[in-house]
Structure formats: C-alpha cells, structure tokens
UniProtKB/TrEMBL annotation:
Keyword terms of this UniProt record: 4Fe-4S, Iron, Iron-sulfur, Lyase, Metal-binding, Signal, tRNA processing
Protein's recorded name: tRNA wybutosine-synthesis domain-containing protein
PANTHER family found in the cross-reference section: S-ADENOSYL-L-METHIONINE-DEPENDENT TRNA 4-DEMETHYLWYOSINE SYNTHASE (PTHR13930), S-ADENOSYL-L-METHIONINE-DEPENDENT TRNA 4-DEMETHYLWYOSINE SYNTHASE TYW1-RELATED (PTHR13930:SF0)
Top-level taxonomy: Eukaryota, Metazoa, Ecdysozoa, Arthropoda, Hexapoda
The species this protein was found in: Lygus hesperus
Cleavable signal peptide: 1-23
One term of GO molecular function: 4 iron, 4 sulfur cluster binding
Length: 190
C-alpha cells in the first residue's frame, strides 16, 4: 500500500471515529454489488463498531446499463435480489448486537438497520419530526449555540407500513403502485 493511500485511510478512520460526537443522526450507506462486495461482512461490522452510526442503509446496486463504447464489467448479474440483500443485512446484524433491522422498501431494494436506541415503547422511531427539528435548530442559532439538542429530540414514529416485515414491505398504502401489464416475471433482481 502506498504512503498516500495509508494517509487517506488514516484520515477516513479518524473521521469515522468522530462522526457521532455532535449527537446528530449519522448514516452509513452501503450499496451491495454481487461478486464485488457482498462477502465483506466482518469488515463492514468493524467499520460500524468504529463509527457507531445511528443507521446503516443497505441497498442493492441499481444497474443503469452501460455505454457500449466503454468497458464496463458491471452487468445485471451483479444486481442482488431483495432476498439476498435481506440475507446480507440479517447476517451483518448478527455481528452488531446494538443494531436491528428496522425498515425496508422492497421496490428500492433497500433496508434500514437502526441502532436499538431508536426502538422505544415497542416501536421504531426512525423518522424525523421536521417541525420539532426546525424549532430546535432555530433555538440553537438564537442562543448562539448555547442550546444543544440530539438526534433523540426530534424522532418520529416509523409508519407501520415501512417497518421490516410489514405486509406492505415499505410501500405507502396511500400511493398507487403500478404493476407490469404483461405479468412477466422481472428477471433483474430488483
């Protein structure tokens, strides 16, 4: 490994260690690509232990095609099925005792791992009460930073349809879902 790469990694690790000191929400985002990074379970668990984020959003890669004039090794074969992303997340959670699977959006091939502190009174509170957040932020500025607040001060209930394991699988029932007219199975993994 070059000295430059070592310096970059050192700086990144320092950022990860300090990322949660302000008390505000922190999120790691991980895009899974089959045959590229889906087998790095222990390394991901180590990064989570280092930065202790509030949330980890895990999403299967979305294939957008490729430019035939440029080499591109990413294909539809690299797109994980939602069940594969779910399996990955469940295995990762086994290595992270302070975290649990809170939410999913099947259509986006995305799952949300949350720190257990966001599970209160028997329900997940992963959403943001934006009115409360803006009031807290305004007061913070009015007091020139004397008044502080944390991520826990503006939590809102996760809707039941967005929680992991719900019948809706993340689809808001007030929205219209469109299905293919020909009824053929989607082979994309999404």
């Amino acid at each position: 490994m070059s000295n430059v790469m070592l310096i970059i990694l050192t700086v990144l690790f320092e950022i990860l260690k300090k990322s949660n000191v302000q008390g505000q929400r922190t999120v790691y985002r991980l895009t899974l690509v089959k045959a590229w990074n889906i087998d790095e379970m222990q390394n991901y668990a180590s990064l989570v232990a280092l930065g202790k984020p509030d949330f980890i959003e895990v999403k299967g890669v979305t294939y957008c095609g490729g430019d035939s004039s440029k080499p591109n090794s990413l294909t539809m074969a690299n797109v994980p099925w939602h069940e594969e992303v779910t399996s990955f997340v469940e295995q990762l959670i086994d290595l992270l005792p302070d975290y649990a699977l809170a939410s999913e959006h099947e259509h986006s091939n995305c799952l949300l791992i949350a720190h257990r502190k966001f599970f209160m009174d028997g329900k997940w509170r992963t959403w943001i009460d934006y009115t409360k957040f803006h009031n807290l932020m305004r007061y913070h500025y009015e007091t020139k930073g004397e008044s502080s607040f944390s991520a826990m001060d503006y939590v809102a209930d996760t809707p039941s349809w967005a929680t992991f394991g719900s019948v809706e699988r993340g689809f808001d029932p007030s929205e219209k879902r469109w299905h293919r007219k020909n009824g053929t199975k989607d082979i994309s993994g999404c």
